[in-house]
Structures are given as C-alpha cells and as structure tokens.
Amino acid sequence: MDLTWLGLHHRDVTGRQMHDLLLLRHEVFVIEQDCPAYQDIDGLDVAGDTHHVIALAGSQVVATARVLSPGLSGPRPRIGRVTVAPVGRGDGVGHELMRRTLGLCERVWPDQELKLSAQAHLEGYYARHGFAAVGEVYLEDDIPHLDMVRPA
User: Fold this and answer.
1) pTM
2) Residue 16 is part of which domain span?
3) How many structural domains compose the chain?
4) What is the pLDDT of residues 49-77, one digit of tens each?
5) Would residue 52 count as lying in a domain?
6) Within 10 A of 96 (CB to CB), how many other CB atoms are there?
7) Strands 4-9 and 132-140: what pairing?
8) 25 lies in a domain?
C-alpha cells in the first residue's frame, strides 16, 4: 500500500483530515469494538501541543495516532488513539505507524519517557517498540488495558 505519512501539530491538521481521523477512530473504537459509550472526542485532539501522525492512501486516512504533550495527561508525552483501518492491517502499517510516532516524539520531545494505555492483547505489539507494562490490567469500556512505558 502506497502511503503518505504526516506528523503534524494539531493546528496544522486540516479540517478534513481531523474529520477523517475522528471518523476512523469512531469506526474502530465505537463500532468495530462495540463500545457505544466510548468518549473518543475529549477535547485533547486540539489542546496544548498535541500532535497527530496520519497515514493517507490517496486522501483516505488509513492509520492515525495522537501524542499528547507533557502536562495534558501527566508529566510526559502520551501516545494514544493508535488506530489502523481494516484495509491497512496485516501489511505492517501498524508497525510503521508506531515507528513514525516514536520518531515524531523524539523530534518534538527528545529524550523523554513515553507512556501509553494499551489494550492488553496488544502488549507484545507495543513491546516490539520498546514499551514495557507497568501495573495491573484494568478494564476500560469492558476491554482489558494496561499502562506501558518506554524509557527515554
């Protein structure tokens, strides 16, 4: 799949791109994972120095991740809303998304510990990118999650 990758401060994301990444997240987190009460739109997509990594196939958003700036959800940058459309799964798009997201974090917030909340079944996926589980598994929207940290 031929993709165009963008790593953008929220103010540089176009209205169309924001709409499309929110639509993809809704399709995956609410519809596909059957979590109608999930509050994806939380105001943080356009807060502080939040950045977004977006993969485009033509004009279609096929993968995205959000990085909250320090202070929005703790003292360190926090990766979240990591999403790959079904059309992008199984071809390494998710791993490239993480590589691009980690590269963005290193450029914007060099030498910072990174945090994320992972669905527990994806622990190995994130471990491949240097994250280690901390704490116990907990339920979020009836899906087991765990906190993970990637040292600086």
Assistant:
1) 0.95
2) 4-109
3) 1
4) 999 999 999 999 999 999 999 999 999 99
5) yes
6) 18
7) unpaired
8) yes
